[in-house]
Design a protein that fits this description.
Largest sheet: 3 strands, mixed
Helix content: 55-70%
Order of helices and strands: HHHHHHHHHHHHHEEEHHHHHHHHHHHH
Number of strands: 3
Radius of gyration: 23 Å
Structural class: mainly alpha
Distance between the termini: 51 Å
């Protein structure tokens, strides 16, 4: 058997076995055999997963990537990196003692509403029925060593478990799952039992774990740099990343000051942004306004020919479900299933309950957010990836990197400012203020995970440098802590894309040249941007772009 054929067969065998341990990830990429299961976490399961990853790495060693075509060689690198990371996580960083959020089954239940399944009633029955036992086992793990639990994660788990219980208890009224519950005898009862288990889990965390929780959220230098290398394809270490972040923060702050001065002499960013906050819709019109802004951004991009339009796609703007609001305080995007023939994405908007929250959803913010989340940001990028055969392998679908998908979305904010969709001086201030936010994430990411900076210090940085409210800063830092190297991906990815465009000589005023550049950049999937640049544009382009982005790059 040739090396390409051996590699294809290995990927197929490995993933079909791996899906048993990761049923939600399986459903997300269109494999539904485990749609009725929750992720197992017993000692025997963890041991079997460790053995699976070790066998994969041994098998990959027997296949020379230089004997593969460029697309398979890219998948070879991605698969090896993913297996090494998971193996190290399982052997060195047992999440079962530290992170109660990962036990919560609510998103697994919600997934049945948003992914096409051959038998949603059976999947819902399987997952609902497993919840009580699943959470009992979780309690045993957490009770064994409550001191290892990270306090902020325990607090988040309490909030999400209670919101999740309300969601599960109300499944009969859910727009998508309600008809499934009504048509299947016994599902309502299973939902009630699952909701009660979630409420009991929240009470257990609050009463028995939180008072003793004292774990640290930092992943440490070794794991952080391993993530940079294996997940994101970067040769930077933590010190290099910090230097990049510090330099970028300084440049963006200078650009921001210049943009503010163009609006009003000696105006601060907060004074300029305050001018925007009064121009906002009422709460009952908020979703409609987001739909209009998304449609306007789409029409602008297609009229200018900035990208090649996917042959099919649609995007639904909906209110964020209550159980997701602790994680989505403003807005977010859920990509379509890879094999969804309609490529229907979901754009969540969290409708605020008070005037202060509503003020953040002003017209300029709605337009900018729609650029980032929808057009030409996340929605266009993920749909394009799903429709390219080379980027629809399980390996690529299961190993996304924020350097590409978030770097692209942040680059799109700059693009739509350059092209005139965002055309007010105040909107330039908003774009640069949000770029500063993403640049500061680089420093917070390294600080929290490597330097031992406490969450309180990180929150204060966002409050003092960005003018964030305390609650907003707390929410930001909470998710930064649970996702090492994801926060840094926005600014680093943007800087690399902007640098690459420059070294390739792409004229921002030439729509046809921009379209060719964008189409090539999006052609290899949602994986590590350095690997994509090397695969699509070549090693020389990568070296030049990296030198600019991490050297003398201007904001």
């Amino acid at each position: 058997m040739s090396d390409p054929a051996r590699f294809d067969a290995l990927c197929e065998r490995y993933h079909r076995a791996w899906f048993r341990f990761h049923p939600e990830e399986a459903v997300a990429v269109g494999e539904t055999a485990h749609a009725g299961r929750l992720a197992p976490f017993g000692d025997d399961d963890i041991g079997a997963l460790i053995a699976l990853d070790e066998k994969l790495l041994d098998a990959l060693d027997e296949i020379d990537p230089t004997g593969l075509d460029p697309d398979r060689a890219l998948d070879h690198a991605l698969l090896r990196g993913a297996a090494e990371l998971e193996l190290h996580e399982l052997l060195e960083r047992d999440w079962r003692r530290r992170d109660p959020v990962r036990y919560l089954p609510v998103e697994a239940i919600h997934q049945i509403a948003v992914r096409p399944l051959p038998d949603p009633a059976a999947a819902l029955a399987g997952r609902l029925g497993a919840v009580p036992g699943h959470l009992r086992a979780a309690r045993a793990h957490l009770a064994a060593e409550p001191e290892a639990v990270v306090p902020a994660w325990a607090e988040l788990a309490v909030e999400e478990a209670r919101a999740g219980a309300a969601f599960v208890r109300g499944l009969a009224a859910d727009a998508r799952l309600g008809p499934v519950v009504a048509a299947a005898p016994g599902l309502a009862g299973l939902a009630g039992e699952a909701a009660a288990a979630l409420e009991a889990f929240a009470a257990f965390l609050e009463g028995e774990v939180l008072p003793r929780a004292a774990g640290t959220l930092a992943c440490g230098r070794l794991h952080f740099e391993r993530l940079l290398r294996l997940r994101h394809g970067l040769e930077l270490d933590a010190e290099g990343l910090r230097r990049f972040g510090e330099a970028l923060v300084g440049r963006v702050e200078r650009s921001l000051a210049e943009a503010c001065a163009a609006v009003a002499p000696r105006a601060s960013p907060q004074e300029v942004l305050a001018r925007l906050r009064g121009d906002r819709p009422e709460a009952e019109a908020l979703l409609a306004r987001y739909r209009e802004a998304m449609a306007a951004a789409r029409a602008f991009v297609l009229a200018r020919g900035l990208v090649t339009a996917p042959p099919r796609e649609r995007l639904e703007v909906v209110a964020t479900p209550p159980f997701l609001r602790p994680r989505i305080p403003f807005a977010a995007y859920l990509e379509p299933a890879p094999h969804d023939p309609e490529q229907a994405g979901t754009y969540y908007v969290t409708v605020p309950e008070d005037e202060a929250g509503l003020a953040a959803h002003h017209e300029a913010a709605i337009r900018l957010t729609s650029v980032h989340e929808a057009w030409p940001g996340h929605h266009l990028q993920f749909v394009t990836a799903h429709l390219r055969p080379a980027s629809r392998t399980w390996t690529r679908l299961l190993n996304p990197s924020a350097t590409l998908y978030e770097g692209w979305a942040l680059y799109c904010e700059q693009l739509m400012l350059e092209q005139g969709f965002l055309d007010r001086p105040e909107e330039r201030v908003l774009v640069l203020h949000d770029r500063l936010w993403r640049a500061l994430r680089v420093l917070v990411d390294v600080g929290l995970q490597v330097d031992g900076v406490g969450p309180g210090v990180a929150r204060r940085l966002l409050v003092d440098r960005l003018g964030f409210a305390e609650a907003q800063a707390a929410g930001e830092v909470a998710w930064y802590g649970r996702a090492p190297t994801v926060p840094m991906g926005y600014a680093l990815g943007w800087a690399l894309i902007d640098a690459l465009r420059g070294v390739l000589g792409v004229d921002p005023g030439d729509a046809a040249a921009l379209r060719r550049f964008h189409d090539r950049l999006l052609s290899a999937g949602s994986v590590a941007l350095p690997r994509v640049v090397r695969r699509v544009f070549g090693e020389a382009a990568w070296v030049r772009a990296a030198a600019v982005a991490f050297g003398t790059h201007g904001a």
